[in-house]
Design brief:
The structure holds two protein chains of two kinds. By secondary structure, chain A is of the alpha/beta class. Chain A has two domains: about 240 residues, 3-Layer(aba) Sandwich (Rossmann fold); about 240 residues, P-loop containing nucleotide triphosphate hydrolases (Rossmann fold, 3-Layer(aba) Sandwich), CATH 3.40.50. Chain A has 19 helices and 22 strands. In chain A, the strands form five sheets. Chain A has a six-stranded mixed sheet with strand order 6-7-8-3-9-10, with helices on both faces. In chain A, a hairpin with a 2-residue loop joins strand 1 and strand 2. In chain A, helix 5 crosses helix 6 and helix 16 packs parallel to helix 17. Chain B has twelve helices and two strands. The longest helix of chain B is centred in the first third of the chain and has 30 residues. Classes of the chains: A alpha/beta, B mainly alpha. At the A-B interface, helix 3 and helix 4 of A face helix 7 and helix 8 of B. The complex binds adenosine-5'-triphosphate and magnesium ion. The site of magnesium ion has 4 residues of chain A, from helix 2. Adenosine-5'-triphosphate sits at the interface of chains A and B.
């Protein structure tokens, strides 16, 4: 069996499928990749780690034919081989799940999977179903082939993309933050699948911001920092290191400092326990392909962080939107500090102190082409003091924007930079700055650390703890169980549009929440 | 002599509606494909006038209407190739190039025609019609609807061919992806530039055909500026139809009917000021825009040149 041979070979003898040899890629004003050497071997899961902007995706862009290196060479099976185009990459057996969604929103899932066939062929949608089932089932992924992509949640879309990459029978599978929107189970299944694939002799490049995943699934870890490769940990060392040692080593490579500050710290709660945000029997009828909400009731007290766990796509987004006033409800009531919010629109709810941080930061959270400064005040457009009688007061806006930028540590070249050009973590900071401004009483965070690097993740989590510490009520929706366990007082679990249980955080809470998530009793 | 309900009027109106609708239909179907693929083809008016002129020359010198259609389509494709080079491959602004092509070709064809024919406007013989057996015998409607040049039936058949392409073929998927999310098409291994180029060339061919029909069958001669906004109406139709070929057909018939009102009224001897009747098509455009235009959802990447790997 060739698979057996591959795995039993000593690591350094494993066959190199792709070799990067001193690859450099420049963009105006920045060196995204600086003389990077990298060997991707058959039979290995090669993890790429690095902060936001370290150059991981740029590297992948060159491997998948989207970009050409400015210097250096790419070798395939030991032979120099410029990868001219995405179709060339595909024909070389390189399949990629890109960080940014690469599905056509107006087409169905099946049509998206069929995309790429020769134009004179008929799309074989029938055959597809069987093959998709074969691939998706062991992964625990349930795909509705007839759903239009724009109706799917981002997590479901990510699942579709993973299945698509697997459909192609690649020799090298690249996953660029493909787990960012998956559930803990989904991630574990994907990890198991990666292991199976490399045992068959494939190579996998796996990019993640979660060190736990890197340690668990990786055979080899390479760390990028500011476009340079600053370290590589081979299979032998990886196996011999204790988990904590490994995390320390990687963190110090990535950030030049030690971990340990990602630990659990649940903020103290003020003694006063009045319920600030109360939701009773909230109901939203299900849509065509979206889940509804059924009899949702909960309360969040002052200074309390209530987590909402659950597999992605079980109504979390609908809940957040219904609370924020962005989605019509079909029953139930929401009160904030004793005032009923029923029937109020987004603006009124915001005014009364209910704030919502969307998970779709660029799509609905900000206007990408607007400057950072305007994005801070997007929800106050036309209102004094920033606008007076319809006229924009740039000085007022800029002074306040400068304060917020400093206060929330937003790293932006200038206030007039379009917000879309910032990195994910900084866009998130702009959103946080905006939503926490004056008069916030209850804040809903929807996947607040999705796609952020370790430093930004920790900063965001600390910010959420601070918010609760100031006596606000926090609803924290996340698919990252560790995140919820590290900061929530209580964790409610959503499944198919219902709250199936609420667990007080503490010893053993993780397992109990996990059991609820997969449909068992706590 | 009759009124608006007389048989003469009705027959003239229907026949005229179809004759006027065909160029709009061809242009609309062509534009629809470009837009689907993400290219706003404003140059279509120029492609049409080029098709009208070349189509007329082809038919005039060869005596064959079919050769006229061939030269018309070829001229449209030639202009489209220039547009594809500038806008799709080089990524220049589609609106600017489209307007430039239209203005340039209107002038060029007028000039060439003047050199060639001076102030005379030679006419072609009447186009040969192919009556459809049995159907053509129906009183009033038969002669109006089923006694046309073969190309008319082909144009209507093209509507259904387009529906099939968009709904059932890989090409349809590729076109839609090119217009909605070109990067997704690119990473699926299909060349976006080629897909869009093909769509633009198709538009050129259809527009050229429409122009040739307009000159050779509709008018029987070429006069400078003969298309008179037909290409632009095609753009309106494509926008309103939101990707549906059948809607282009419906819209073309409505506009065609409005355009033929004047002639039909004259034929039937009805006395309405022509100025009033000539306003009808424009009122129709506005009415349709008000009714359907608001909901017009256009491809997300329409008008945006695709550059691989750009952020
Ligand atoms: N097409 C482009 N044009 C200009 N600059 C670019 C382009 N692509 C990437 N960059 C820049 O190159 C740098 C590296 O970006 P890259 O996307 O590779 O980072 P990353 O490691 O994938 O980060 P993240 O974890 O946030 O995804 C960033 O500073 C980015 O702004
Ligand atoms: Mg990236």
């Amino acid at each position: 069996m060739p698979g057996m041979q591959t795995t039993t070979k000593p690591p350094e003898m494993r066959q190199a499928i792709v070799t990067l040899d001193g690859v450099t890629k420049r963009f105006p004003g920045i060196i995204a990749n600086d003389r990077v050497d990298l060997v991707i071997r058959a039979g290995e899961v090669h993890v790429l780690l690095g902060e936001n902007g370290a150059g991981k995706s740029t590297l992948i862009g060159m491997l998948s034919g989207l970009q050409q290196p400015d210097e250096g060479r790419i070798l395939i099976d030991g032979k120099a081989m410029p990868i001219r185009s995405p179709s060339h990459a595909l024909s070389l057996g390189i399949g990629t799940v890109f960080q940014h969604n690469m599905l056509v929103p107006s087409l169905t899932v099946a049509e998206n999977l069929a995309l790429g066939g020769k134009w004179w062929q008929k799309p074989r949608l029938g055959e597809l179903a069987a093959r998709v089932d074969e691939i998706a089932r062991p992964l625990g992924i349930n795909i509705n082939l007839d759903a239009v992509v724009s109706d799917l949640s981002l997590g479901e879309q990510q699942q579709v993309e993973i299945v698509r990459a697997l459909l192609r029978n690649s020799r090298l599978l690249i996953l660029d933050e493909a787990t960012s929107m998956l559930t803990p189970q989904g991630i574990a299944e994907l990890g198991a699948l990666m292991r199976r694939l490399v045992e068959r002799g494939l190579a996998v490049v796996f990019i993640t911001h979660k060190l736990g995943e890197a340690a668990e699934f990786g055979d080899r870890v390479s760390v990028l920092k500011l476009g340079r490769k600053v370290g590589e940990i081979g299979p032998d060392r990886l196996r011999s290191l204790e988990h904590d040692e490994l995390v320390d080593e990687i963190v110090s490579k990535m950030f030049g400092r030690n971990a340990g500050d990602g630990a659990i710290s649940i903020p103290d709660r003020p003694a006063n326990d009045e319920a600030l945000l109360a939701v009773r029997d909230l109901r939203v009828l299900p849509g065509k392909d979206t889940s509804g909400l059924e009899a949702i009731s909960f309360m969040v007290g002052r200074g309390e962080i209530l987590g909402v766990a659950g597999i992605d796509g079980n109504g979390q987004k609908q809940l957040a939107e219904a609370l924020a006033g962005q989605r019509r409800t079909d029953g139930g009531s929401v009160t904030l500090a004793g005032r009923s919010l029923d029937g109020l629109d987004v603006g009124k709810r915001r005014e009364l102190g209910l704030r919502y941080l969307t998970d779709d930061r660029l799509g609905e959270g900000t206007v990408g082409t607007f400057p950072v400064s305007i994005n801070y005040f997007l929800k106050q457009i036309g209102e004094p003091p920033f606008w007076r009688s319809g006229i924009e007061h740039s000085r007022e806006i800029n002074t306040h924007a400068r304060d917020l930028t400093r206060q929330f540590d937003v790293r932006t070249p200038s206030l007039s930079t379009p917000v879309g050009r910032l990195s994910g973590g900084n866009i998130q900071k702009v959103l946080i700055a905006r939503e926490l401004a004056e008069g916030a009483r209850a804040v809903i965070f929807n996947k607040p650390t999705y796609g952020l690097d370790l430093a930004n993740t920790q900063a965001t989590r600390q910010r959420i703890r601070d918010v609760a510490g100031q006596g606000l009520a926090v609803l924290l929706i996340s698919t990252d169980l560790e995140e919820l366990l590290s900061m929530c007082h209580r964790i409610a679990v959503m499944s198919q549009g219902r709250l199936v249980g609420t667990i007080a955080n503490g010893a053993g809470a993780g397992e109990r929440v996990g059991r609820l998530m997969i449909g068992l009793a706590a | 002599m009759g009124g608006f309900l007389s048989e003469t009027f009705l027959a003239a109106l229907l026949f005229g509606a179809i004759t006027a609708a065909i160029p709009l239909l061809l242009a609309g179907l062509g534009e629809q494909m470009s837009e689907k693929a993400g290219v706003l083809n404003i140059g279509i008016e120029g492609m049409m006038i080029a098709g009208a002129y070349a189509g007329f020359l082809g038919a005039y010198y060869s005596g064959s209407f079919w050769l006229g259609f061939a030269t018309g389509a070829a001229a449209g494709i030639l202009v489209a190739a220039l547009m594809a080079l500038l806008c799709v491959r080089l990524g220049l602004n589609q609106i600017v190039i489209g307007i430039a092509l239209t203005l340039g070709l209107e002038g060029l064809t007028a000039l060439l025609h003047h050199f060639q024919f001076s102030r005379s406007y030679p006419r072609l013989p009447a186009a040969q019609v192919t009556p459809i057996p049995l159907l053509a015998e129906i009183p009033v409607f038969g002669p109006a609807l089923f006694r046309h040049h073969l190309i008319v039936y082909l144009a209507v058949a093209a509507v259904f061919a387009m529906i099939w392409v968009y709904r059932r073929t890989q090409l349809g998927l590729n076109l839609q992806a090119a217009g909605d999310k070109p990067a997704a098409l690119d990473v699926a291994g299909i060349d976006v530039v080629r897909t869009r180029t093909a769509a633009v060339l198709f538009t050129g061919g259809m527009a050229g055909l429409g122009g040739a029909y307009l000159a050779n069958v509709g008018a029987g001669l070429f006069i400078p500026f003969i298309t008179n906004g037909a290409g632009f109406l095609g753009i309106v139709l494509a926008m309103l139809a939101r990707g549906r070929p059948l809607w282009v057909l419906a819209g073309a018939l409505i506009f065609g009917g409005c355009l033929s009102l004047t002639t039909a009224a004259q034929v039937a001897g009805i006395n309405v000021p022509t100025d009033v009747i000539q306003m009808v098509p424009f009122l129709a455009v506005m009415a349709m825009l008000v009714l359907f235009g608001r909901r017009a959802s256009l491809p997300a990447a329409l008008g945006i040149p695709y550059e691989r790997g750009a952020r």
